[in-house]
Write a structure and sequence with these properties.
By secondary structure, the protein is an alpha+beta fold. Helix content is about 25%, strand content about 25%. Strands 1, 2, 3, 4, 5, 6, 8, 11 and 14 form a 9-stranded mixed β-sheet that branches. The protein has a 7-stranded mixed β-sheet with strand order 31-30-38-36-37-35-34, sandwiched between helices. Strands 17-26-25-21-22-29 form a 6-stranded antiparallel β-sheet. The longest helix is centred in the middle third of the chain and has 22 residues.
């Protein structure tokens, strides 16, 4: 039987850290949190109250309601509040992370342990020779690569072994102090990603430990590190009796990192440390005025000496960083802490203002919105379905939609964890399948009775059908559970596409209508009807091109997320909707150059843009003409071998979504400008745009019709040098049959982007209707902005290209100033 693990902490003004801290401990196996807030003024209390409504947190008020209660005194309140179902509870701080390690090796940097008499806190201990600079991710049992290597329930399994001895009442886990890693300012990413340099094991403050205890056997805490037991004994992480240093409770004689340790991020960056000290100092001053006394927590400000003491960066360590992917995934099922932040206005801001701001932060996230539900009759083996959020009149808004929390009971069935999922459908042909968050398990990791789900539904309104998905030896079984109708909330802020900040500053699309993040995670999938629409589309397009005696190829631009997955903050799922479609399409119909672009490394995509680079587009274009049988790949690449590029700074469509705007260096073609060959451009933005190029010096005397999306634009400098005429229509792969007949091109390319492939394009699309719709609603501002792009052509030219019909539907005077 695996022990049920909880974490207890005393916090104050830790809002910036709480979401990651909670998500990390959920990822490593913690089930519940018991937290005492001793007077936060930054929104921490409101955020914890939100988590308590979800059942994740027991929020504690220290006895006497004194906001200045010392930590050991607050620990008495925490002990009393520990739920009875928790077998063991770890008492740590919000800057400490309970990290699982390899239980078979004691990571000690390869140097001898220091004795009690040694002064191992000297500065020289962190400036020894560089042969100890290598990462200790191996010695901690985990690689810094994909998190698939991380064991399920590894921490709980190890703790179960330690506490299998009924005489063990408390476990002391030593610290590993992490420094600033040389960071002056707060950077992007998680704490466990940003700070990967720690002290050597011999650093004296690593002998400080925190306690994992059986709450029923603790009388009280002598200090925040050491519990006074009523029965049983204290052990270290080797299971041996704990030896104190000079009888100092909370300080062990030796450092032991085996099975688990406490990663202590005491200082972080200089900016974060200084701001934290300012906030503590101001709160302490205000509290002393409020209470009429100087509050004991006011002395918590440590100052420069504290920073210097704990800013130890002697050894690279990526053991915690390996958990980053799972931490990000857990964060999806938590409210965003940033929504609860209380602006820092004045040192002496009145308490009622802070209380009001805290209440309003809750109101902003919990909306009184009508919810309709219709529960389906349950089928065996499902015996119960209980939804706790959203409620009948309230929903909790998340970053991308609303939070769904529910539990499912299954009778007489033992199903492995990964084989019980929840399917959510709100769009025809597309569903999101979510794994379970927690199981009532019997120790083997299998389902006992209850399965718990806490997921983000990435929509704000509409109909959502919920179904249980069970994978058994007999096959897949789907059981309808409930239908929810989320009513629109006029007061809720409309979601805007945003950018995720990945590793080394790489940006990725988020909060878009195609749910790019959920496609990348592998949660979204297409049903057979949706896939059949794609195969029908391919068959119709092939038949159409046969009628006009043209070669046809579909080019699907892979998502940046999948090609550059090693920079993405979230782990990549196994199968995306694009993968499903490509596998179902006829052989030779579709070019999906994911492998080709991965071979290019960082040159394939822009850091601050969703689209492939011009170099990436060049390699794809060469592969296109090879697939069409026009030339060999080697010959096509020779055409562009003498192209020259220059380095420019690019904001891109992702960099523009951030404030401040972000830019990054990229290679741009400088030796050729396709705009010099442009002969016609109707200037419309996106859908409905038509451009024609002519090049008498082209390599092939053929016409190429491109019905594409935004990724086609990077291919223009290469297509116009291959084909004597290129006609582009922005349609994202939708096909106008009359256009294909009229242009009569020898080559037809249809191009779409992977994130659009949740829905098949149409062969019944009308370019004329799109142009009429776009020009009817165009504003004067849009009209003026697009004027510089417009290039008219004579009626004779238009007739020769077969484009007369689609130019005539533009408003009179469209090309005039």
């Amino acid at each position: 039987m695996l022990p049920r693990l909880g974490v207890a902490a005393v916090i104050k003004n830790e809002l910036d850290a709480l979401q990651e801290w909670v998500a990390f401990h959920l990822a490593v196996g913690v089930e519940h949190f018991v937290i005492a807030d001793t007077g936060s003024s930054d929104g921490s209390y409101a955020y914890l109250r939100e988590l308590s409504r979800l059942g994740l947190v027991t929020l504690v008020h220290p006895y006497g309601g004194d906001y200045g209660a010392s930590e050991p005194f607050a620990y008495r309140s925490l002990l009393a509040a520990c739920p009875a179902y928790l077998d063991i509870v770890a008492f740590i701080d919000a800057d400490e992370f309970l990290l699982p390690l390899d239980e078979d090796s004691d990571s000690q940097d390869g140097d001898a342990q220091s004795s009690d008499s040694q002064s191992s806190d000297s500065q020289s201990s962190d400036s020894q020779s560089s042969d100890s600079q290598s990462s200790d991710s191996q010695s901690s049992g985990f690689q810094s690569g994909p998190d698939k290597t991380l064991p399920e329930n590894g921490l709980r399994t190890w703790l179960g072994k330690i506490f299998s001895d009924p005489d063990v009442s408390a476990l002391a886990l030593n610290s590993a102090c992490f420094g600033s890693s040389g960071e002056r300012f707060r950077g992007d990413g998680l704490v466990i990603e940003r700070f990967t340099q720690r002290s050597y094991s011999k650093f004296r403050y690593n002998r400080l430990y925190k306690s994992v205890v059986r709450p029923s056997r603790v009388s009280h805490f002598e200090n925040e590190r050491h519990a006074v037991l009523t029965a049983g004994r204290y052990v270290n992480s080797k299971g041996a009796p704990l030896q104190l240093a000079k009888e100092q409770p909370g300080v062990s004689r030796r450092v032991c990192w085996q099975g688990a340790r406490i990663n202590h991020y005491a200082v972080k960056s200089v900016e974060e440390f200084v701001l934290g000290q300012v906030l503590h100092r101001i709160d302490s001053t205000w509290n002393s005025t409020w209470n009429g006394t100087w509050n004991s927590t006011g002395t918590a400000t440590h100052g420069e000496a504290y920073f210097s003491r704990f800013d130890r960066n002697g050894r690279e360590c990526n053991a915690a960083q390996a958990w980053a992917g799972r931490v990000h995934q857990q964060s999806l099922s938590l409210p965003s802490s940033s929504a609860f932040a209380i602006p820092f206005n004045a040192p002496r801001q009145a308490r009622w203002r802070k209380t009001l701001a805290s209440s309003l932060s809750w109101w902003r996230r919990v909306r009184h919105a009508p919810l309709r539900s219709q529960t389906a009759p349950l089928e065996p083996p499902i015996t119960a379905w209980k939804r706790t959020w959203p409620q009948q009149s309230r929903v909790i808004l998340t970053q991308r939609g609303v939070l769904l929390q529910a539990s499912l009971s299954v009778e007489g069935l033992s199903v492995a964890k990964e084989n019980v999922k929840l399917a959510c459908t709100w769009q025809a042909g597309v569903e999101c399948v979510f794994p379970a968050n927690h199981f009532g398990d019997d120790g083997s990791g299998c389902l006992d009775n209850a399965v718990h789900f806490r997921v983000e539904l990435p929509i704000r309104s509409g109909n959502v059908r919920l179904a249980a998905v069970l994978f058994t030896d007999a096959g897949e079984q789907r059981i309808p559970l409930e239908r929810l109708t989320l009513m629109p909330d006029a007061s809720a802020q409309e979601l805007q596409a945003s950018a995720l900040i990945g590793k080394q500053g790489w940006l990725f699309l988020d909060q878009d209508t195609n749910l790019s993040l959920y496609q990348y995670l592998g949660y979204m999938s297409l049903d057979q009807k949706a896939i059949a629409q794609w195969t029908t589309y391919a068959e119709q397009l092939v038949a159409l091109t046969h009628q006009v005696n043209a070669k046809v190829l579909m080019v699907a631009a892979p998502s940046k997320e999948r090609v550059m997955s090693h920079y993405h903050p979230y782990p990549m799922g196994a199968v995306s909707p694009a993968d499903q479609v490509v596998a179902a399409l006829p052989d030779g119909f579709c070019l999906y150059p994911e492998a080709l672009l991965k071979q290019m490394g960082d040159d394939a995509y822009h850091v601050t843009d969703t689209h492939w680079t011009q170099q990436g587009a060049m390699h794809v274009t060469c592969e296109v003409v090879r697939r069409l049988g026009l030339v060999t790949l080697e010959e096509a690449e020779r055409w562009f071998a003498e192209d020259q590029y220059k380095v420019v700074r690019l904001r891109g469509d992702l960099g523009n979504k951030l404030n401040p705007v972000r830019m990054a260096a990229t290679q741009r073609l400088s030796s050729f400008d396709h705009r010099q060959l442009k002969r016609y451009d109707n200037g419309l933005a996106n859908f409905g745009r038509v451009i024609v190029w002519e090049n008498s010096d082209a390599l092939l005397d053929q016409c190429c019709l491109v019905m594409g999306a935004s990724s086609s634009y990077m291919m223009f400098p290469f297509l116009v040098r291959i084909f004597s005429r290129v006609v582009f229509v922005h349609s994202a792969g939708n096909v106008d049959v009359s256009l294909v007949h009229s242009v009569a091109a020898q080559v037809v390319l249809v191009q779409t982007n992977a994130r659009f492939m949740v829905e098949a394009p149409k062969v019944t699309w009308s370019l004329q209707d799109t142009i009429l719709e776009k020009t009817e609603g165009v504003s004067m501002e849009e009209h003026t902005a697009a004027f510089a792009e417009r290039i008219p052509a004579s009626q004779a030219k238009l007739a020769g290209w077969g484009m007369e019909k689609w130019n005539d539907c533009l408003p009179a005077g469209w090309f005039n100033a």
